[in-house]
Specification:
mainly beta, 10-stranded antiparallel barrel, Lipocalin
């Protein structure tokens, strides 16, 4: 009987160690797995909950009213990837799964939202820049057909918050048309 109890304790410890970086009551946002690519830590200052102000463009000359939102980042897949979730007061919620691929040396980000369930998730790719911003791109022509990207930029990243911008840019990135801006302060 003692041998069986010992085996069960060892098995329980092995299972819990297998998931030791997952969100838990002790670490509600999970922890970075030391075996993950080091770039997984790019999002470390964002891990946690932020209160944010979101504003998006209505048309070429006008911006909509500010929408308050919570933006939560956590480690997933036992600390080897990052998931985020937005809860907006206007009821338009969204999230992303963020994985760093060491072979391609790029972040891959897959986006989903409650307003449109799609069979294929939108995706962006990019990296942290030398100035500390995280910049992600998706091919997207302008409404007039001009080739370009929809660029997402996390900037002013610190332990107290960050800014975020979504904008269309031409391929040379000499022209930018912002369509969405978010300003966040860390809550916990």
């Amino acid at each position: 009987m003692k041998k069986l109890i010992f085996i069960l304790l060892i098995a329980a410890h092995t299972v819990s160690a297998q998931y030791e970086y997952e969100p838990s009551s002790k670490n509600p946002y999970g922890k970075l797995n030391p075996e993950a690519p080091k770039q997984t830590a790019d999002f470390e200052p964002l891990i946690g909950l932020c209160e944010c102000k979101s504003v998006s463009r209505i048309d070429q000359n006008n911006w909509a009213d500010t929408v308050m939102m919570n933006w939560k980042f956590k480690y997933i897949m036992n600390g080897t990837a990052v998931q985020d979730e937005t809860l907006k007061e206007d009821g338009k919620h969204s999230g992303s799964i963020r994985q760093y691929n060491a072979d391609s040396a790029r972040w891959y980000v897959h986006y989903y939202a409650n307003s449109t369930a799609t069979p294929t998730l939108s995706s962006w790719e990019g990296n942290k820049t030398d100035n500390g911003n995280i910049v992600l791109y998706r091919d997207q022509p302008a409404p007039n057909g001009t080739p370009g990207f929809y660029r997402l930029t996390f900037s002013n990243i610190s332990r107290t918050g960050f800014d975020w911008a979504g904008e269309w840019v031409n391929k040379a990135e000499t022209f930018s048309y912002p369509t969405w801006k978010i300003f966040c302060q860390k809550k916990d």
